[in-house]
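Readers of this paper often ask what the protein records in our data store actually look like. Such a record has a labelled line for the sequence and another for the backbone structure tokens. Nothing more is needed to write down the fold, since each code stands for a local backbone conformation. The record that follows is passed on verbatim for readers who wish to inspect the format.
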Amino acid sequence: MQIIKEVCVDSLEDAIKAEKNGANRIELCGRLDLDGLTPSRDLIKKAFSVLNIPIRVMIRPKHPSFEYSEDEINIMINDIEFCKSLGLDGVVFGCLDENHNFKMEQINRLSEIAKPLNVIIHKAIDSTNSVIDSLSLISNNSNINGVLTSGGERFAINAVETLKKMLVLVPDRFEIIMAGGITFENFDKLHSITNGKFYHGKKIINTK
């Protein structure tokens, strides 16, 4: 089984460095200091023109809330359409309601528009009241291909039992992408416990 290591970056330099050092995939963001926002179109185009590995783009117009107005949803749709026009591998987004649960009406709408791109729901799931209940909502939508999660904790290593449960609850086509404090230094330990396939982090690849 191939293990996929996805590196989140917010600059072209870091994207190139990650690919050169063995990253399998890039999550392209703006402002990683704000946990990732939608990157500039210039950065998206440049990364797409020089990288050979798949690129997934964060679609997140603001920080820190995951609650979006209709105007903000329209901005997200516009950015998704741009990613579709380039033929990127996928987009990454998530929408919550005022009760910290998935706003499925918005998620379903965006995921339908995003096709045929891969659609990943980001760590907004870790802010919901139950990651397990939230997982069942999104894994039942055939337009959604996976979720980025630390199992409801800040760090994946603190949620290994939840993550193992999540791995068995989803269909084979659905990616559970583990994230949250995963580095090249602690990767082997986490993988030996969870035996997952998809992992994500800023420092998951040693780029020194």
About this structure: The two ends are 27 Å apart (CA to CA).
